[in-house]
Amino acid sequence: MFLNKASRFGLYAVVQMAGTDERVTAAHVARSFDISENHVAKVLQQLARAHIIRSVRGAGGGYVLARDPGALTMLEIVECLDGAFFDPCAGCALRHDEGDCAPHAAACAIQQVLHELNEQVYYTMKSVTIRTLARQGAVRGLQLLEPRGDLGSKAG
Predict the structure, then answer these.
(1) Which of the listed ranges 29-33, 85-89, 142-146 does the model predict with the highest average pLDDT?
(2) Which DSSP string corresponds to the chain?
(3) CATH number at residue 80
(4) With 80 as the cut, is the pLDDT of residue 144 above it?
């Protein structure tokens, strides 16, 4: 199972937002997970354009969830940042350019197994909410937020 950096960074950020009442900045997410602040900032902007999070400007600004974390799924974050997840021909070596792999599907002995795995991942991500992920992190004692004064004051 492979998720692009954008999806992973987006999931890190929204789970962090779901676990706090504080505003979260790109700098804070980057520090928390030791990842690129510039990349996180771009991901947060994309999530804001999709109305998954919203930007709060001014002193103490940052980002907050715009939607209920109990109704927001992993799949929505991944599809927002990487496009449609479920492509049964994704990664098929018999697929040429952007053409259809259907004519070759019968020749591919592993196509059905890969399709089933992809389908299981799709439905699992569709069923796991951001609230569930945030609660699992809290149960495991993950310290995702620093003291309030260390959150930064710039939005994104």
Answers:
(1) 29-33
(2) ----HHHHHHHHHHHHHHT-SS-B-HHHHHHHHT--HHHHHHHHHHHHHTTSEEEE-STT-EEEESS-TTT-BHHHHHHHHH-----TTTT-TT--TT---HHHHTT-TTHHHHHHHHHHHHHHHHH-BHHHHHHHHHHTT------GGGS-SS--
(3) 1.10.10.10
(4) no
